[in-house]
Amino acid sequence: MNIERIDIDLLKQLLVGAANNLVNNQEEVNELNVFPVPDGDTGTNMSLTIKSAIKLMEETESNSVTDVVKAFSKGSLMGARGNSGVILSQLFRGFADSLDAGKEYINIDDIAKGLNSSVVTAYNAVMKPTEGTILTVAKDIANYSKKIYKREKDIKSFIGKLIEEGNKSLDRTPDLLPVLKQAGVVDAGGKGLLCIIEGVYKVLDGDTSILSSNGARETVKKVAPKREHIDTDDIEFGYCTEFIIQSDEAGVSKSNQLREELSEIGDSIMVVGVDDIIKVHFHTNNPGVGIEKALKLGFLKDIKIDNMRLQHEEVLFSEEEYSHNHDHDHNHFEEVEEPTEKKDFAFISVSAGEGFTEVFKSLHVSHIITGGQTMNPSTEDIIHGIEKCNSDNIFILPNNSNIILAAEQAKSISDKNIFIIPTKTIPEGITALLSYSESLSPEENYEVMLESIQGIKSGEVTFAVRDTEFNSTVITKGDIIGITGKDIVAKGKDPIEVTEALIEKMYDDEMSMISLYYGEDTSVEDAEKLEEIISEKYDDLDVELIYGGQPLYYYIVSLE
After folding, report:
1. Cα(417)–Cα(393) distance, rounded to whole angstroms?
2. CB 237 within 8 A of CB 284
3. Nearest-5° Cα angle at 209, 205 to 215
4. Contact 8, 63 (CB under 8 A)
5. Is 432 exposed, middle or buried (0-12, 13-18, 19+ CB in 10 A)?
């Protein structure tokens, strides 16, 4: 029997099946990352993004398929992690924007229209779109849908043909992106997208097992726990209060008004309005007062109140907690300053490692988001940081190329004056902060900070997690590898020797300083041995040894 249209019940099943199928295959997607490093996380980022979409979709009570898809889109935006997650959220957003208000079902025409709208939105969200990625696979699927949709009568058959075309496109990605061919893989994001569409097909084909809670077989890579004792007597506001306001009046002005009212009774305030939904998070000693203020804007749902003095938990920074404990968004932040007066400017920085966090504190960063490799913060995490800063001018330092897009999405939602410094490494973030001058305007500082990161070279030393070939170099699982930019330039069996070789590749006569940041798995003795070697070899340069405390990477080095 042909399936000619999708009603609201079937739509919800399709979206759940899509999410679960992606989660089931997230490790396979992770393995497709070009660099054989222990932080290949495309599959993880896409999975966490789509699970955030499912969560908000399931909270929607509307009988309109348009509203369900829009809620799914909003959830994906707020939960978007990494470049792949942000692009995925934009694909969902484009599809949602293509639907007329109040629709009761979706047909083949709507699917084709939505797919093409999604591609336009996603391409517009990326400053320099790269072909051979998820964007190309989405575009090829959308173009093919335009060719065949008029003669198709059965949605399952239609989706099946799109998957066939999508797989052909995925197989072509190495021809479009040489780095994929060199590594012998197809594009990870494109594979993740196909997993989503294949999940839709499975449900249409009658596979109900993928709809159950056991249908998503999660596998996550764990990072060593970071445990710190916190004296609960020092907690000024004891109740962590969260809820969502469904309101016809949601918007920047209403969000700002509520934020100001809540600031009178608590702290750790996040108020984010998107379309007709306002998400609220704050700490207070009187949750009822905050709820009364919120009720003036609309009805509340998903109310959650925790007594932090009784239920204080240790914070374990791992992908699993990002997935399962995201209700405690405040735990992903290190609140460095609690400003009592409004400042002319504020800094938000992403940091991975206790040592780096201490460096950022010393440079007067207002809000630190713990994350980076394997732990890309979401758009919502960054928005939380923006809301915590008592300033209208905020500089965001992503310090990772895979976090820049999420920062851009947070900027598009916030009404504050946001400056994103596109730092791709933590040393670039440190350099940008050092170049800031209070005598300059925010706009002038933005230009100065952009210019400052052009004069720094960064590199990392880690280990290979699989056999591969990169730029004609054969790499074996377990090899120590040195990376700078998008190139693996050194390999060996000893971190010190590989770091020395990496620096040699990065060095030029213009350099005056070498900074060595050693990680949590590197001994002080080994780090000091490396410092001695580098100081003797480059005796005309200043050499600094600093504890970064970063996981997975033996050393992060910078030359400037």
Report:
1. 5
2. yes
3. 125
4. yes
5. buried
Strands 346-351, 393-397: pairing kind: parallel
Residue 71 to residue 61: CA distance in whole angstroms: 10
**pTM of the model as a whole:** 0.68
Which DSSP string corresponds to 37-64? STT--HHHHHHHHHHHHHHHHHT---S-
DSSP 341: S
Residues shown for the chain: 560
Nearest to 423 by CA among 393, 441, 396, 442: 396
The residue written with tokens 């239609």 in the block is: 158
Q: What is the DSSP letter of 436?
A: -
Token digits of residue 44: 């993880």
Cα–Cα distance measured from residue 82 to residue 408, given in angstroms and rounded to the nearest whole number = 11
Please state, as a whole number, how many other Cβ atoms lie within 10 Å of the Cβ of residue 496: 19
pLDDT over threshold 70, residue 427:
yes
Residue for token pair 């920074």: 317
Position 329 confidence tier, pLDDT thresholds 50, 70, 90 = very low
In this structure, what token pair is assigned to residue 192? 């993740």
pLDDT at 420: 96
Q: What is the predicted pLDDT for the residue at 449?
A: 92
pLDDT number for residue 496: 96
- Percentages of the chain per state (helix, strand, coil), in multiples of 5: 50, 20, 30
Per the structure block, which two tokens stand in for 314?
């240790």
pLDDT for res 398: 94
User: Which range, 169-178, 281-290, 319-328, has the best average confidence (pLDDT)?
Assistant: 169-178
- Are the C-beta atoms of residues 95 and 73 closer than 8 Å to each other? yes
In Å, what is the CA distance from 423 to each residue of 110, 349, 427, 518?
40, 10, 9, 20
Measure the CA angle with vertex 43, ends 144 and 183; round to 5°. 80
Tokens of 216: 């998503």
The DSSP-derived string for 249-264 is: T-SHHHHHHHHHHHHT
Confidence of residue 226 (pLDDT cuts 50, 70, 90): very low
- CA neighbor of 325 nearest in space, from 51, 26, 23: 51
Class of residue 492 by CB neighbours under 10 A (exposed 0-12, middle 13-18, buried 19+):
middle
Q: Which of 43, 39, 40, 74 is nearest to 56 (CA)?
A: 74
Measured CA distances, 353 to 104, 224, 251, 431, 457 (Å): 50, 11, 37, 17, 20
Question: pLDDT band for position 388 (50/70/90)?
Answer: confident
Tell me how many helices (H) and strands (E) the chain has: 20, 19
